[in-house]
Amino acid sequence: MAVRWSWAARAVWTCAAQLWVQARRTGQPAPWIAVDFVRIEDGILVEHWDVIEEEASRKESLSGLPMYGDDFPEEWFGPASPFQ
């Protein structure tokens, strides 16, 4: 079964010439939670870096809470989830 790729932003913050975006990314073997940091000067992207962590499933979550939003990746995709 092919895994569909998706990117869902949860939060976006801006401050002066900086932008931060928190998102869930899927399409790799395990979903990722990522924060991208971007800096723009004179309308040109001059810096980008990110922090990426594999998202814990319900079974892997030590707290019993999802890392992103109100659901775990296997629930986000429903019964056909490749992340069960």
What does this structure look like?
With 84 residues, this protein is mostly beta strands. 6% of the residues lie in helices and 48% in strands. It is built from one helix and four strands. The protein has one helix spanning 73-77, and strands spanning 6-15, 18-26, 32-41, 44-54. It has a four-stranded antiparallel β-sheet with strand order 1-2-3-4, with no helix packed on it.
Strand order of the largest sheet: 1-2-3-4
Question: What is the averaged pLDDT score?
Answer: 82
- Measure the end-to-end span: 13 Å
What composes the largest sheet?
4 strands, antiparallel
Count the E strands.
Answer: 4
Instruction: Report the uncertain regions.
Output: none
Shape, please? elongated
- Helix-strand pattern: EEEEH
Class per helix and strand makeup: mainly beta
Strand content: over 45%
How many DSSP helices?
Answer: 1
Round the Cα radius of gyration to an integer and report it.
15 Å
Helix content: under 10%
Task: Explain the layout of strands and helices.
Elements: E1 6-15, E2 18-26, E3 32-41, E4 44-54, H1 73-77
Antiparallel strand pairs: 1-2, 2-3, 3-4
Structure summary:
This protein has 84 residues and is mainly β. Helices cover 6% and strands 48% of the residues.
Keyphrases for this structure?
84 residues; mainly beta; 4-stranded antiparallel sheet; 1 helix; 6% helix
